[in-house]
Amino acid sequence: MRLGIWAPAPQTIRPDPTVRPALAALTQHGGGVDESYLYAAETLRRAEDLGFDISLIAQRWLGPDLDSWIYATALATQTRTIELMAAVHPGIMDPRIAAKMAASIDRISGGRFCINIVNGARPQEADMYGEWIETSEARYRRMHEFIRVMKGMWTQDDFNLDGEFYKIEHATVPTKSVRAPHPPIYAASRVDEGMNVVSQECDTWFVNYDKDRRNYAQSLQRIEHEVGLMETRVRSLGRTMNYGINALVLIGDTDEQAEAMADEHVRVVTSDPFITVGTSGVGAALIGTPKTIVERMRRYESLGVGLFMLHFYPMRQGLDEFAEKVLPELRRA
Q1: Is residue 95 within 8 Å of residue 149, measured between CB atoms?
Q2: 48-52, 112-116, 277-281: range with lowest mean pLDDT
Q3: For the chain, what is the mean pLDDT?
């Protein structure tokens, strides 16, 4: 089992009392070193001391959050062992630039960089910074070509592609990543076209579940079914796949107390216009006593989920509580 943690960028987690002033500062001139960056660096150092393996750094083009790839580079200098996964949007970043930057960050971090391919669901964001494509089928075709371009430039000295979206001639990235053949690629997708791309090109797929945490049993059935479908796909291609899950962790002295905390969390994030994280991770139902959370993590693990990408509220307090109350039980189980 691998443990991951969301980098606590202000608009990718529910802003806690520490994050709120840092979020406000991002929209103003002045000040010293950015407080949101310092908070993230401190949190990730704490996480790697606890044995966390990887951090996800989301990209919010329309918000004031720092750019995820620059964030990853800076955090690489502040951490020692934790992997750093930056999000990238096909249609906003060019895959040739992404290939060069990824190899560079991987070298700076000593082989700790990886990429989360996000196909995009925000037309305004894509139109402002790149190009939105209306149909999901075409967006996934572009995503597929995007990954092919990166991989081709990482692994070939004379890469060429006459694609629908990219025309590449005699391209390569002379800068080689520490990890061979290239940094790992992660993705999530809920639709068949996306899962086909993931099965062909990605190393880890984030599984789907019901957004309503009360449908935990149905989510288990869905994960078991969809992991089975993905396994059929990758086996037919002679490949293997790793599986991850995104989850919010809320710990209570009783399950009922934790459920009440979850109700309040959902109420806040759906009513505050300045919170963009929404109900991300709530449906994974890692909400309850430490015993309940360990049991559910082990149940997910039995279905093939090997990576848990976690976030907490409040972030640092929740991380420390997880370390005190859940990690010992998880490691004993």
Answers
A1: yes
A2: 277-281
A3: 95
Between CA 26 and CA 271, with CA 41 as vertex, the angle to 5 degrees is 50
The string of DSSP letters for 19-59 reads: HHHHHHHTTSS--SS-HHHHHHHHHHHHHHHTT--EEEE--
Give me the helices (H) in the chain, please: 19-25, 35-49, 68-76, 95-108, 123-129, 136-155, 192-201, 216-236, 255-271, 290-302, 315-325, 327-332
What pLDDT was estimated at residue 333?
A: 59
CB distance 22 to 36 below 8 Å: yes
- pLDDT tier at 116 (50, 70, 90 boundaries)? very high
**What is the per-residue pLDDT across 193-227, written as a single tens digit (0 to 9) for each?**
999 999 999 999 999 999 999 999 999 999 999 99
Using alpha carbons only, how large is the chain's radius of gyration in Å? Answer: 20
What's the DSSP call for residue 262? Answer: H
In angstroms, the CA 298 to CA 2 distance is 12
Report which DSSP code applies to 283.
G
